[in-house]
Amino acid sequence: MISDFGYILLFIISGLVLLGVMLMAAKFLRPDNPNEEKLSTYESGEDPMGNAQIQFNIRFYIVALIFVLFEVELLFLFPWAIVFGNEELIAQTNGAWGWFAMAEMTVFIGILILGLAYAWAKGYLDWVRPKQQIPEIKSPVPADMYKQVNDRYASK
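RESULT FIELD:
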């Protein structure tokens, strides 16, 4: 007879086997035709250019944080609508429950709107592409000496 832990082990094993089968099926069924565009680096909607050691635009992260903030707002709105829309509670409190819920959510959304207005006023939502700066290195070795060395080894 299998114990309760045996059932848990069977569920874990069957989950891992199912995961392996799904990954193998996906590997065999999906098309595999890479090209230069698909293999290029993708950095938050901007085409990569220049050296990877340049300063990255922080506005991507600020916009992402604002997006997450409003996603969390939606997570709070759905349970609020279910709990505070309960007709029995509204009837028992002679409508005070509904007005309390409306005032509470108005304050919550008002704070979020103030945060959005602040981000907008500060210019965090402006989508400005940063100017690319290529770093220059001052070397004591003259540039023509580099050219001579490169020419000498280019023929070999």
